[in-house]
Design goal:
It is a single chain. By secondary structure, the protein is mostly beta strands. It has 2 helices and 14 strands; from the N terminus they run βαβββββββαββββββ. The chain has a 12-stranded antiparallel sheet. The radius of gyration is 17 Å and the shape is globular. The two termini are 14 Å apart.
């Protein structure tokens, strides 16, 4: 099992998604060890998985309450900044979010609403020096998938984001993101940084030593 100490990295093909996986998880060995006492985030790119370690977690006050900011790192310094379960920044990937300005609705407001909630985010992206790219997002409560992802409780509530964006070619790009909520926390998500880079994320908690 993953928490018992190793993650299998399969061979990568030559396309942007697999190249990203190689960049994101650049260990030379076939297996990457995880260390007891560290907290990890399971990350899957096109079905190929590894982990990132928690570097920092802070709680910040906002007008809507509190936000949990988490910075997850690989051994080579690639970083995901995740705010309340949503990717805020992605640095060191083949596609990056250098900056983001947005005020997404709280998870509670979406789950308690009988209507869709619309909002916007502004992104600075690389490559291509694409600044102030605006995404229009509609968030709404949805039903769980027929087949739950591994490790996700049947008790989890689900939220979907319908995102209207633009691809690297400047053409309209619509895509769906999914978030599983349990005890006011995102326990699984599927989020896209670019057309060629969509991630599945699942917090693993702290690895405990094997008995």
């Amino acid at each position: 099992m993953l928490l018992c100490g190793v993650v299998l990295l399969w061979g990568c093909r030559s396309n942007p998604t697999y190249d990203t996986l190689t960049t994101l998880f650049p260990w030379r060995a076939q297996y990457a060890a995880v260390h007891p006492g560290m907290e990890y985030l399971w990350v899957s790119v096109d079905g190929r998985a590894s982990v990132m370690a928690l570097g920092e977690r802070t709680v910040q006050s906002t007008g809507n309450g509190r936000q949990v900011h988490e910075r997850w790192y690989t051994g080579q310094g690639e970083m995901l900044l995740v705010v309340d379960g949503r990717i805020q920044q992605a640095i060191g990937f083949t596609h990056e979010w250098r900056g983001q300005t947005s005020t997404p609705p709280t998870w509670a407001s979406v789950l308690q609403s009988s209507r869709e909630v619309s909002w916007r985010r502004s992104l600075d992206m690389m490559p291509g020096y694409r600044y102030n790219l605006t995404d229009n997002i509609t968030s709404y409560k949805t039903t769980p998938p027929k087949r739950l992802p591994e490790g996700v409780s049947p008790q989890a509530q689900w939220v979907a984001d319908l995102v209207a964006s633009k691809g690297d070619d400047g053409l309209a790009w619509w895509y769906l993101q999914k978030f599983a909520m349990l005890d006011d926390r995102v326990v699984y998500s599927e989020q896209c940084i670019a057309k060629a880079l969509c991630l599945a994320l699942r917090p693993l908690g702290v690895v405990v030593p094997a008995p």
